[in-house]
């Protein structure tokens, strides 16, 4: 199953030598008396010598800390590993290490609004807001929540919160009321930052009715701080007059006594973020991430795997309900300029984000595989219409990027970029496999496994395999494992989520393959793997073929229990005005069969008007499978379009042969 094709892009030896990754390799050789010749050797060393690697990374990344301690690893177990057990540090202090006049944040709203802050101005804003939080009684271990768009104020609120040793948690303002209650209701925040409205797809959405319900139903909220986005400051003040426990952001900061910004020094594993599983099969799990592991992992991924420096302008299309927001914001630790965009990526036109890429001189452009596929279907060719002079890297995540997506980027966006498909997740607030500016890019492959992460693919017998499909695992402990789950006192939920398959080994739930040159192919989620006739098929293998069919805009594939076996069912959304007929059905099946196996060919192809997705844009195969089998979908509030599930109920086409 290896990838025999030539790379789509390859860095020159001079370009490789100039990367921070290669600089780090040479540093390891020098400091540890090694002669590691390339990334493969560096990776193996980092996994075989985890303490030396993570200690070296701490020093290379210039982590700001009041104490590092001599020990890198105390207890080495999964779960429960003790990384840097004697360290004392603060997350916000590391993101605010630069305090000069370089631009730190650029905010762009769909309606054309633009603001920016320098690093010096960012520090001042965080200082003022941290003083207000102290005045409101927020301290070490308290939770502060954001029901916020991706704007400057959200970043400031997170940094002010974490400077105090408090815990930040957020979700996007497009969540429905039950989705918010299912998340924030579990973690009981003391302060809630929320926008009064936001812009999306040409509309202005009012958040105030939901804010009233949130405050009414979450008793722990002592202060609701309302941030003006769709209204100006005075209109916002007028609009929240009758809202319980509410104040405007300006009033909150202006009435608090001044206080110099200080950084609460905490343990390495002190809680930093609470993040949430998508929760489509039950109430979302509250995943708690620690200060040190998150910081170290993000420094590694930004500086080494993405080669980000002070000269870069980093953009990731994300909301505050997706872990890529947390990943993006950590770019401040590199001193880069971050671009925060809030709105639809296709409004007012398909090329709007590329207009922004030119205007802001974006050098690293991050997005989802779904966006890249939709851009290609829309016929967008930024290479012909835009300059993209500084663009040197494109990052893609959220779902596997198909081979055609890789080729589209090089053909129609820019030929000379490092295209990095990356994969990890909310569970580790980072990546298991990702990019590398010192390695070639092969279609359909993630370039490499992340340094220090003992990522393997295991077969059903728990044996590592190469160039064969199996379960993606991490066989040894790593610093960015969650501390645990909130409200899981005995750790049983945490253990059940990752360690039930193989005790002491992290099973991530991805169906994957490690290729002959050390790349990784993700075939989909293990729990969505199809099993017709006992043969395991990753859904990504089918989606890759369906994306080639011009008439199909979107698709979702499930296994339907049928006559003591499983049959493959494919649902498709077609271009406007088209209807699925025998000819198009046959075209879809022939395309799949020509490039896979007869077992991949769906027994049923059914047209639907919409496909349910999470708010971060992932299709929900398990939820659709449950609906088809008449089982409940417990937490529809996790979906951006829960009404779409109705389209899959009691389908006559699935009742017969």
UniProtKB/TrEMBL annotation:
Q: Which part of the chain is the AMP-binding enzyme C-terminal domain?
A: 550-618
Per the UniProt record, one Pfam family is: AMP-binding
Top-level class of the enzyme under EC nomenclature: ligase
- Tell me which EC number(s) this protein carries: 6.2.1.16
Q: Report the GO molecular function annotations.
A: acetoacetate-CoA ligase activity
Query: Can you give the residue ranges of the Acetyl-coenzyme A synthetase N-terminal domain?
Result: 39-94
What are the entry keywords? Answer: ATP-binding, Ligase, Nucleotide-binding
SUPFAM superfamilies the UniProt entry points to: Acetyl-CoA synthetase-like
Tell me the domain of life: Bacteria
AMP-dependent synthetase/ligase domain span: 96-475
Transmembrane stretches in the record are none
User: So what family is this one in?
Assistant: Belongs to the ATP-dependent AMP-binding enzyme family.
NCBIfam families referenced in this protein's UniProt entry, alphabetically:
ac_ac_CoA_syn, PRK03584.1
For this entry, the protein name equals Acetoacetate--CoA ligase
Provenance organism: Microbulbifer salipaludis
């Amino acid at each position: 199953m290896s990838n025999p094709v030539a790379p789509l892009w390859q860095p020159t030896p001079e370009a490789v030598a100039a990367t921070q990754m290669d600089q780090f390799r040479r540093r390891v050789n020098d400091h540890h008396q090694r002669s590691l010749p390339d990334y493969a050797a560096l990776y193996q060393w980092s996994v075989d010598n985890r303490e030396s690697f993570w200690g070296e990374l701490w020093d290379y990344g210039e982590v700001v800390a009041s104490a590092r301690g001599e020990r890198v690893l105390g207890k080495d177990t999964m779960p429960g590993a003790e990384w840097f057990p004697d360290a004392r540090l603060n997350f916000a202090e590391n993101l605010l290490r630069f305090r000069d006049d370089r631009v730190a944040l650029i905010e762009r709203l769909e309606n054309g609004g633009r603001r920016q802050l320098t690093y010096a101005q960012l520090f001042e804003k965080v200082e003022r807001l941290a003083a207000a939080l102290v005045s409101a009684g927020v301290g070490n271990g308290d939770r502060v929540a954001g029901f916020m768009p991706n704007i400057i104020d959200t970043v400031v609120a997170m940094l002010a919160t974490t400077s105090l040793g408090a815990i930040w948690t957020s979700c996007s303002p497009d969540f429905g009321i039950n989705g918010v209650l299912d998340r924030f209701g579990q973690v009981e925040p003391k302060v809630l930052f929320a926008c009064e409205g936001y812009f999306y797809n040409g509309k202005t959405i009012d958040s105030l009715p939901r804010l009233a319900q949130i405050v009414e139903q979450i008793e722990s909220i002592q202060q609701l701080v309302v941030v003006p986005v769709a209204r100006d400051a005075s209109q916002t003040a007028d609009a929240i007059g009758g809202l319980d426990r509410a104040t405007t952001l300006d009033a909150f900061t202006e009435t608090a006594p001044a206080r110099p910004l200080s950084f609460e020094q905490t343990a390495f594993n002190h809680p930093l973020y609470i993040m949430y599983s998508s929760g489509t099969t039950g109430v979302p799990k509250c995943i708690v991430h620690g200060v040190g592991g998150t910081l170290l992992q993000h420094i590694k991924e930004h500086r080494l795997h993405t080669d980000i420096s002070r000269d870069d302008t980093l953009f990731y299309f994300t909301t505050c309900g997706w872990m890529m927001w947390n990943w993006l914001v950590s770019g401040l630790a590199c001193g880069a300029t971050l671009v925060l965009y809030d709105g639809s990526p296709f409004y007012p036109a398909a090329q709007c984000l590329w207009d922004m890429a030119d205007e802001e001189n974006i050098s690293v452009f991050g997005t989802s595989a779904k966006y890249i596929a939709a851009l290609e279907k829309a016929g967008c060719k930024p290479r012909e219409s835009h300059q993209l002079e500084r663009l040197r890297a494109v990052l893609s995540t959220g779902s596997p990027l198909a081979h055609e997506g890789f080729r589209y980027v090089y053909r129609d966006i820019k030929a000379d970029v490092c295209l990095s498909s990356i994969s990890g997740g909310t569970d580790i607030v980072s990546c298991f496999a990702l990019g590398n500016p010192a390695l070639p890019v092969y279609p359909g492959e993630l370039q490499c496994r992340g340094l220090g992460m003992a990522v393997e693919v295991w077969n059903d017998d728990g044996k590592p395999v190469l160039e064969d499909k199996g379960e993606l695992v991490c066989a040894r402990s790593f610093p960015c494992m969650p501390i645990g789950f909130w409200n899981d006192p005995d750790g049983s939920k945490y253990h059940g989520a990752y360690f039930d398959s193989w005790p002491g080994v992290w099973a991530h739930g991805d169906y994957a393959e490690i290729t002959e040159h050390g790349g990784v192919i993700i075939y989909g989620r293990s729990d969505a793997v199809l099993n017709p006739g006992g043969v395991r098929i990753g859904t990504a293998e089918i989606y890759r073929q369906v994306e080639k069919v011009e008439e199909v805009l979107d698709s979702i594939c499930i296994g339907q229990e049928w006559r003591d076996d499983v049959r493959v069912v494919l649902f498709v959304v077609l271009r406007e005005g088209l209807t699925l007929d025998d000819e198009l059905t046959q075209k879809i099946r022939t395309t799949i069969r020509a490039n896979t196996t007869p077992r991949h060919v769906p027994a049923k192809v059914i047209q639907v008007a919409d496909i349910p997705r999470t708010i971060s844009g992932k299709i929900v195969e398990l939820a659709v499978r449950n609906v088809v089998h008449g089982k409940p979908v417990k937490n529809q509030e996790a979906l951006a379009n829960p009404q779409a599930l109705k389209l899959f109920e009691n389908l006559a086409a699935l009742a017969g042969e």
